[in-house]
Specification:
about 300 residues, mainly beta, Jelly Rolls, Immunoglobulin-like, 2 domains, 5-stranded antiparallel sheet, 19 strands, about 15% helix
C-alpha cells in the first residue's frame, strides 16, 4: 500500500487511511484456537455490529455494491449516525478520508449520490482508486461546496475507465478491473480544520428504477491541448464563470461568462501553463460541472 502511494508521488506522509490487511487477518485467525476465535468473534460482534449497521443503512437500491466502511487517520473523527456521517477534521495538506468499497466494477456505469454540507466554503476533490490503490486520474472530480447552501446534492457517475478492443473494433468495459476506494480531499493541498457532513449516500446502477437523471458531461476541446481549451457551455443552463485548477486544487484561472453565452464555446488560454493535468470547472448558481484537461 505504501509502495503504491509512493509510486504515484502522493504526498501522504502521516496521512494513510486506516486499512485492514485481510491476508494477515485470515492467517492469524487460522492459528487461533476455536475457543479463542469464538470468544473473539462474540466480542467483535457486540462492538462492531452497531457501526456496521449504520454504514449499511447508507445503501438503498443496490445490495451488490457493498460498502466496507469509512476510514481516516487520527486527524479525522468519524461519527456515524442513521444515514449520515459527520467528519470532524484538523487535516494536513494532502490528507484524505476514504470510503472502502467491495470492488465495484464499472460495467453498468454505477453512480454514487450523496448530500454534503461543510462548516466553511471548501473545495472537495474526489479520487477513485482501483484494487491496487492506483489513482484513476481520468475519474478525478473537483466540487465547490458553499457553506451557506446547507446540504448540496452531488451525483458522480463512475466513468467507463477500462476498455478493451473487441474483434469488431468496438470498445467494451474490462470486467477484470474494479473500483475499491473513493478518496475525499477537503481543500486539497491546504490545511483545514472544520467539519463535513455526508448523508443519504446511495450507490447504484444506472439501470435501477431510482437512478438519477444525470446532466450531460461537460465537453471541452481540443483535449489534450497546447494553446487553448474551448468549453461547450450547455444550452438552457445558467453559468457565470469558468475556473481552472491544478491537481492540488489551487485555482489558476478564472473567466467570467455572459449568462447568454451559448452560441459559441467559451475558451481559456493555457499557453502559460506547464505540461500536466488540470481540472476545469463550469459553475453557475445551481450547477457545477468539472472535467479533466491535459496540457501538452
Amino acid at each position: 500500500y505504501i509502495k503504491n502511494i509512493k509510486k504515484n508521488n502522493y504526498k501522504t506522509k502521516n496521512s494513510l487511511p486506516i486499512m485492514r490487511n485481510k491476508q494477515y487477518v485470515l492467517k492469524t485467525m487460522n492459528n487461533l484456537s476455536p475457543f479463542f476465535f469464538s470468544f473473539l468473534f462474540g466480542i467483535s460482534f457486540l462492538i462492531l455490529s452497531p457501526a456496521q449497521a449504520q454504514i449499511k443503512s447508507f445503501q438503498h437500491n443496490a445490495p451488490e455494491f457493498e460498502i466496507e466502511g469509512w476510514f481516516g487517520n487520527s486527524h479525522y473523527a468519524l461519527t456515524e449516525g442513521y444515514r449520515e456521517l459527520t467528519v470532524s477534521m484538523n487535516k494536513q495538506p494532502w490528507e484524505a478520508f476514504t470510503l472502502a468499497l467491495n470492488q465495484i466494477k464499472p460495467l453498468n456505469a454505477p453512480y454514487i449520490r450523496f448530500k454534503v454540507k461543510a462548516s466553511a466554503n471548501v473545495r472537495l476533490r474526489i479520487d477513485l482508486h482501483d484494487k491496487n490503490f492506483d489513482n484513476l486520474e481520468d475519474a478525478t472530480r473537483l466540487y465547490m461546496i458553499d457553506a451557506n447552501d446547507g446540504y448540496t446534492e452531488l451525483v458522480y457517475e463512475f466513468p467507463q475507465i477500462y476498455s478493451t478492443t473487441t474483434a469488431g473494433g468496438s470498445n467494451s468495459p474490462n470486467v477484470s478491473e474494479s473500483i475499491s476506494h473513493i478518496l475525499f480531499y477537503v481543500n486539497p493541498g491546504e490545511t483545514f480544520a472544520g467539519e463535513l457532513s455526508i448523508k443519504d449516500l446511495m450507490i447504484g446502477s444506472m439501470e435501477s428504477a431510482d437512478a438519477p437523471n444525470l446532466q450531460p458531461n461537460l465537453v471541452v476541446f481540443p483535449n489534450p491541448t497546447r494553446t487553448r481549451v474551448n468549453v461547450d457551455v450547455p444550452e438552457g443552463g445558467i453559468y457565470t464563470h469558468i475556473e481552472l485548477y491544478d491537481m492540488a486544487g489551487r485555482k489558476l484561472m478564472h473567466k467570467g461568462l455572459n449568462p447568454d453565452q451559448t452560441a459559441q464555446p467559451a475558451f481559456l488560454d493555457v499557453r502559460s501553463l506547464n505540461k500536466g493535468i488540470y481540472l476545469l470547472t463550469l459553475q453557475g448558481p445551481t450547477d457545477v460541472r468539472s472535467t479533466r484537461v491535459v496540457v501538452q
